[in-house]
Give the backbone structure.
Amino acid sequence: MPQRRGNLLHSFNWAFDGIVHALHYERNMWVHFGIAGLVLVASLFFALTRLEVIAVLVAISFVLITEMLNTAIEHLVDLVTDQEDPRAKVAKDVAAGAVLIAAVNAVAVAYLVFYDKITSVPYTVLTKLRGSPIDVTVIALVIVILAAIAMKALTRRGTAFRGGLPSAHAAVAFAAWVAVTFVAANTGYALPISAIALLMALLVAQSRIQAGIHSLLEVAAGAALGIVITAVLFRLWYPL
């Protein structure tokens, strides 16, 4: 096996390849990603505190991490032996048990965080409780990144920082533009602030094309992904 030496960028790319592999071959990862996205969107409607958002993000990360470790252990055991061995069964069962514990923990966290809020849904919806736009921005960016990773896993092209459909850089850049535009909407400098943010997003997109990292289609797809997801979330949370 060749030594995996390289700079920090290569390390991120290898890590990204691991996430894409898990998504590409493990159905459970798609389930976890889908649930994570739904929970993050739901968190916008229930006026979570910062501490509650942190608890949700930690629970989601814990499930994804243990699922990926479970996948890694299964591959490692299969590499060592293809025979039925009680020790191999124990290794796989223990790894699967770790995923189960993480999933139960996530359910417990969801219950503790959402139960009281769900039981008062009519009140919450009617009063249109709103949290900090910064919270909406952070959640929107996380969902954009998850969506970009999922699309790259489907197309099986590119790495975290180079190539593939869509361009994750463009997705995040244009998502940030939309978020900045919404946040600055009620200020006296809304137009210039939005224009500057759009210019920065366009420069990011142009740099990806000029460097030959992405095609125009890949950058456009990333931009559309970031714009649509962020705009929808802000419109849901701050209706006209």
Remarks:
- The chain has two domains: 1-129, 131-240.
- The chain is about 80% helix and 0% strand.
- Residues 131-240 form one domain.
